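Per reviewer request, we include the raw input and output of the structure prediction for the construct analysed in the revised manuscript.
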Amino acid sequence: MCKLACDRAGSLISVDHVKDAMDLFGTEKVSDLEKEHAHQFADIKKLINAFRGGDREYNLYSLLRRIEDHYIKRVSDVPDVDGYPFKENHRLGELLFKIEVISGRRRDERNGFKLYQDEPDLFELKENSDNLIMWAINPSYRKYLQIR
């Protein structure tokens, strides 16, 4: 990120240079995710692109609805997820959490977004099924996905 911002700035880096670099940075991160996680899900780029122009945050219901409406309904066949045949959109949401496209926070917490490495069972908790966890798109992908 800093290198991309520096390439745009020439000398002193400002916040605007960092913001300008976010689109290219997000594009590169998606490309890296494709290479790194293709063995877990062959359609990772299409799944991530399902969030293009969407919201920054989702509760579980709205996250799964977004996956259903903008990915599942638009592809003819959903590939295996982590080596298992696709059965439900919940597995795709969990995959997005595992690969850190989304992070979660409890509704009553102001900050404190949790990554998979911090709390691997967060997606499976009853709190989540009760819509008490908010899922946010990683800031690294927001400009790429045209999320404000």
